[in-house]
Amino acid sequence: MTTRWSKKWAGPAVAVVLISSMLLSACSSKEDAASGNAASDSSKPTTLKVELFDRGNSPAGYTITDSYLTRLVKERFGKPNNIDVQFVPVPRSEEIQKLNVLMASQSEVPDIVFTYDSGTFNRYAEQGGLTDLTDLLDKNAPNLKKFLGEDTLAYGQYKGQQFALPGRRLVLGKYAGYIRQDWLDKLGLPVPQTTDELYTTLKAFKDKDPGNTGGKVIPFGVSLASAQYEPLLWSFIQPLTDEQKYTLTQQLGSNDYPTLLPGFKDGLKFMNKLYNEGLISKDFGLDKDKKQLWQNLQNGLLGFYTEDAGELYFSANGGYENLQANVPGAVITPVDAFTNSEGKHAKPAYAPNAMYVMIPKSSKNAEAALKYLDWMASGTNLFDMQFGVENENYTLVDGVPVVKPDATQEAMDRIYNFGDLAIIVNGKYAGDDAKNEAAYIAQTPEKYQADMKKSVEISNTDNIQPVKFDHPIEAEAKYGTALADKFQEIIVKMTMIKPDQFDSNYDSMIKDYMASGGQAILDERTAAYKEMSSK
Q1: Facing residues of 166 across strands?
Q2: Which contiguous run of DSSP H or E holds residue 333?
């Protein structure tokens, strides 16, 4: 079935026979399942077990394994292919621990599992616990392969073989800047377009206090969250050779860190200058969860800050709406102010992959699993899982689904956990890149959508792509967590220290960082680069 499922679901799920997992052996059954036609009544269905995050938030009338979307899957995919889809709940808060237990059992592990953690995927691949999908993908899931694309699929490869099917991340841009337009207007200043212009603007905000804060003005709002300092620091990184990019970058967790890159010290010196001139948040090192930053923003004390693109405009956050309620006339403009030595607005981007979708080596249903994922990438199946029912969950405006602001609770409950079932994508897929972006912007209140669009454009400008090897760097997994903490210690201390003490303290902190695992990562990445370059 390829037509949009626009009718409201009626009645209970169709009962299915629960039997032990097995592949269809009759040729006619295989042919029927491949074609999508109902198989003979005499053939036994294949049982396909699929992991499903349980966040403990199922609305009344639903359970995590029996909901509108699980019924949709059974009706649209299961019945025509004679496959009994069974969802296996895994608590989101302990998904890696639970997945490790399931993988170790082999007999209990679902046929489709997933994780956001790259280290977990790499470990399973290295230990031989995953099905090699390299050839099976071409044979059984051509629509899925086309949907994901080569760039995304590359993140699921281990030493050249396809061991995971990474979900496709639709929103790749990370950061944008935001500035008080009403303050600029009051001072007769233009929107800053370079780092030097921004510095001049921040000085004017401090000296002239256009918000009449009574001396509480914070020209540049900073917290200890990466969104507040990464755009600044990465703008100071010098142009890199491929060798520098691969060997000197340090990946701690899911992010690339610039600790060893040329220009990092200069970026810290600029932060130190701003701090010692009273231009950034005084106690930013204590604000790890951005609570103080958001409070200062909503109270009208911040002149400029950087943040995840669009974060300001989502109603759930209420930041902008609260600011405008507290400070009548307050206006914020998206801005791309930091420039590097080449005049570019360089800033990190997300990798094009989301969660790692995997088929354990112990699964006897790899073909059925791929058939399910391919079905999701076919026709309007993914669209309907993510957006729900037309004119109840959304309306189409120029082909773009716009969420209905007056949707009933029943309609909203219908797709409450669409992201956990639509595992082949991160973000709502509306049909193509232009529609995806339009649908993303349409999630914000109409009065903010023009600025939302601008912030997304800024986040996609002059992006710095993540660095990727074809196998994990073991030292990063071993030392990553401790070094990420040390990185933040470097940020805080080197920003707050007196300028005449900067150089000596910087050298000692970097020495400690290298002795704590940084050197081991550098050595391993250097060896991996030499091996990769020699191929």
Answers
A1: 356
A2: strand 332-335
* Percentage of the chain lying above the pLDDT 90 cut: 78
On whether the CB atoms of residues 419 and 348 are closer than 8 A, the answer is: no
Neighbours of 106 (CB within 10 A): 12
Please give the pLDDT value at position 42: 57
C-alpha to C-alpha distance for 198 and 333, rounded to whole angstroms: 14
User: In whole angstroms, what is the distance from residue 282 CA to residue 347 CA?
Assistant: 24
Phi, psi (5° rounding) for residue 438?
-65, -40
Cα–Cα distance, 174 to 461 (Å, whole number): 10
The residue behind tokens 């099976």 is 136
CA distance 375 to 322: 43
Contact 276/530 with Cβ under 8 angstroms? no
Q: CB within 8 A of 531, min separation 6: which ones?
A: none
In angstroms and rounded to an integer, the radius of gyration of the C-alpha atoms of the chain is: 26
Look up the pTM and report it: 0.79
Specify the residue for token string 């691949």: 125
Q: What band does 31 get if pLDDT is binned at 50, 70 and 90?
A: very low
Sheet holding 353-358, edge to edge: 113-115, 353-358, 165-169, 425-426
Q: Alpha-carbon distance 66 to 63, whole Å?
A: 5
Contacts of 318 (CB under 8 A, 6+ apart): none
**What is d(CA 460, CA 527) in angstroms, rounded to the nearest whole number?**
32
Q: What is the mean pLDDT of residues 407-417?
A: 94
Cβ pair 505, 494 in contact under 8 A: yes
The per-residue DSSP string of 394-443 comes to: EEEETTEEEE-TT--HHHHHHTTTHHHH-TTEES---SSHHHHHHHHHTT
DSSP 8-state code for residue 279? -
Contact criterion met (CB below 8 Å) for 74 and 14: yes
pLDDT in tens, 73-114: 999 999 999 999 999 999 988 888 999 999 999 889 999 999
Exposure string of 271-290, with b = 16+ CB inside 10 Å and e = fewer, is bbebbeeebbbeebbebeeb
Environment class of 494 (CB within 10 Å of its CB; exposed 0-12, middle 13-18, buried 19+): buried
> What's the CA gap between 312 and 138, in Å, rounded?
42
In this structure, are residues 307 and 229 in contact, taking their beta carbons and an 8 Å threshold? no
Cβ proximity of 259 and 490 under 8 Å: yes
Residue 424 has pLDDT above 50, yes or no: yes
What confidence score (pLDDT) does residue 493 get? 98
109, with CB counted inside 10 A (0-12, 13-18, 19+), is buried
pLDDT at 36: 40
pLDDT of residue 316: 63
What is the separation of C-alpha 137 from the centre of its chain, rounded to a whole number of angstroms?
Answer: 24
Structure tokens at 191: 């929107």
